[in-house]
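Lab meeting, item 3. Inverse folding demo.
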């Protein structure tokens, strides 16, 4: 089991849920709904030992759930990193940390799912509100 799957497994066992909203609440990570630009689905922010997940409140419910899972991935895997700051102020590549947050989100949302119960991988993703582009993490 890779380290991201292990992190997801530990979270689900500890909090007895794979719901990103419930896990965030249990870990005292504040989820904030905000009227963000349509191109911004959400972001994670760490400030003065406080963790925040901002979610675009214009998204559909299944999209908000995926965004929460993705940003929770940042909160767990990259606790003190602020991706908006990195994008705006450094030459640091954020591709790797975004990939890790996507892998975390897919593993969290599909934690108790069996791929054999679906006709295709895309059916699994669609039925669980996960963007089809995340197919590579199955």
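The presenter then showed the designed sequence:
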């Amino acid at each position: 089991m890779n380290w991201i799957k292990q992190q997801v497994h530990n979270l689900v066992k500890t909090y007895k849920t794979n719901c990103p909203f419930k896990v965030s609440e249990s870990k005292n990570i504040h989820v904030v709904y905000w009227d963000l630009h349509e191109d911004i689905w959400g972001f994670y922010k760490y400030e003065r030992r406080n963790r925040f997940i901002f979610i675009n409140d214009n998204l559909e419910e299944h999209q908000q759930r995926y965004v929460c899972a993705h940003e929770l991935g940042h909160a767990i895997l990259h606790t003190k990193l602020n991706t908006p700051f990195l994008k705006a102020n450094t030459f640091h590549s954020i591709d790797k940390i975004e990939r890790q947050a996507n892998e975390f989100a897919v593993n969290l949302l599909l934690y108790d799912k069996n791929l054999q119960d679906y006709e295709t991988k895309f059916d699994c993703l669609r039925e669980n509100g996960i963007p089809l582009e995340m197919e590579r993490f199955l």
